[in-house]
Write a structure and sequence with these properties.
The structure is a single chain. By secondary structure, the chain is of the alpha/beta class. It folds into two domains: 142 residues, NAD(P)-binding Rossmann-like Domain (Rossmann fold, 3-Layer(aba) Sandwich); 186 residues, Dihydrodipicolinate Reductase, domain 2. It is built from eleven helices and 15 strands. The strands form two sheets. It has a nine-stranded mixed β-sheet. A six-stranded parallel β-sheet has the order 3-2-1-4-5-6, sandwiched between helices. Strand 13 and strand 14 form a beta hairpin. Helix 5 runs antiparallel to helix 10. The protein is globular, with a radius of gyration of 20 Å.
Length: 348
């Protein structure tokens, strides 16, 4: 029997606590260290996980703890330093999205994994969803033909501010497009993988807060491919609860999926997936609950397999670079008020 994979966890905020639960709840994993900057978070971590070494600083944890993989769930602007420090010690990395807040930082992290010969997984956990992942399977089976159009849309409450309000501080968040739309850029690009790489993107946004004009309450972007296929990513944070929709049209048929919950991390969501193959309409029965809490558990299992067998993660460093890059191009498109080319900016 294989020994449990040892996890170090950098970050113990709202989402970091869910990561800790998912690691601790997996019999093939062992949570051995946690870093958290605030004293209250460290006290809570020690109370919940008394056998785990608790650190105030992530770099100190990397230097002192014995682990196989670090799970980085800290504010986005810290990712590069922590990831590269772990990689330099030969440790594998699971990195929450966005992998970083600049293209240079994203590319440095990808290069670091190659230089030090470690595995890098990026936290686009929606790819592991029983619902959003099944859409990819349906496309791959050819059920709807070649995909030509993808819509990913979100309606929800505003962002959580994050520890010390980092998510509302542009110097630390980088671009607010990196926060939620990054998931949808990743899904849309994944679904349109057969079309190659996007070539052009045009984005629009506005805010109802004059004090934060770049904290976009409403955001939409369209990106297209050389073969004529295209995707629309759209969201509003000026709404209620949490509702996500995906539609894909192909040369033969189409599909429509939706997910709703009072919160994004609810354990009892409502969801459906309908598929039309050109002749018959089917409502797909999902084998597991859909929702990021459940998908995070799958992500931890995937990382265990990655460490033990070397199997590539479902979302690689290059996938993380593309999803962050599309967000940053979208921000620039909004600033310039025009469509922008994509491919050259994101070549690695």
């Amino acid at each position: 029997m294989s020994s449990p994979v040892r996890f170090a966890l950098a970050g113990f905020g709202a989402w970091g606590k869910f990561h800790a639960q998912s690691i601790a709840g997996n019999s093939d994993a062992r949570l051995v260290a946690i870093s958290a900057p605030s004293e209250s978070s460290r006290e809570e971590a020690l109370k919940l996980y008394p056998d785990v070494h608790i650190f105030a600083d992530s770099l100190e944890m990397i230097a002192q703890a014995e682990f196989d993989l670090i799970d980085i769930v800290t504010p986005s602007h810290t990712h590069r330093e922590i990831a590269l420090a772990a990689m330099a010690k030969g440790k594998h990395v699971l990195l929450e999205k966005p992998m970083a807040i600049t293209l240079d930082d994203c590319k440095a992290i990808v290069a670091g994994a190659q230089q030090f010969g470690v595995h890098l997984a990026v936290g686009h956990e929606l790819r592991l969803s029983s619902q959003w992942g099944e859409i990819k399977n349906i496309i791959a089976r050819g059920t709807i033909g070649d995909p030509q159009y993808v819509l990913v849309e979100l309606s929800r409450k505003p962002y959580r501010q994050g520890a010390s309000g980092w998510r509302y501080d542009q110097s630390r968040v980088g671009s607010w497009v990196l926060e939620e739309p990054i998931h949808f850029f990743d899904l849309a690009r994944w679904y349109l993988e057969s079309s190659g790489d996007p070539v052009e993107l045009h984005a629009y946004a506005n805010s109802r807060d004059p004090q934060r004009p770049t904290l976009f309450d409403n955001f939409s972007a369209m990106f297209k491919y050389a073969n004529g296929s295209y995707a629309v990513v759209s969201q509003t944070l000026a709404a209620f609860e949490h509702h996500q929709t995906v539609k894909v049209s192909g040369t033969k048929g189409a599909l429509w999926a939706a997910w709703s919950g009072a919160l994004d991390r609810t354990l009892e969501p409502e969801y459906f997936l309908k598929v039309f193959d050109g002749e018959n309409l089917e409502t797909v029965k999902l084998k597991k609950h859909s929702g990021e809490v459940f998908e995070l558990r799958e992500e931890i299992t995937q990382c265990i397999d990655m460490v033990r067998t070397g199997k590539p993660p479902i979302a690689t460093g290059l996938d993380g670079l593309w999803s962050a890059g599309l967000c940053l191009v979208a921000e620039e498109s909004i600033c310039q008020g025009k469509p922008l080319p994509v491919g050259e900016m994101l070549k690695f």
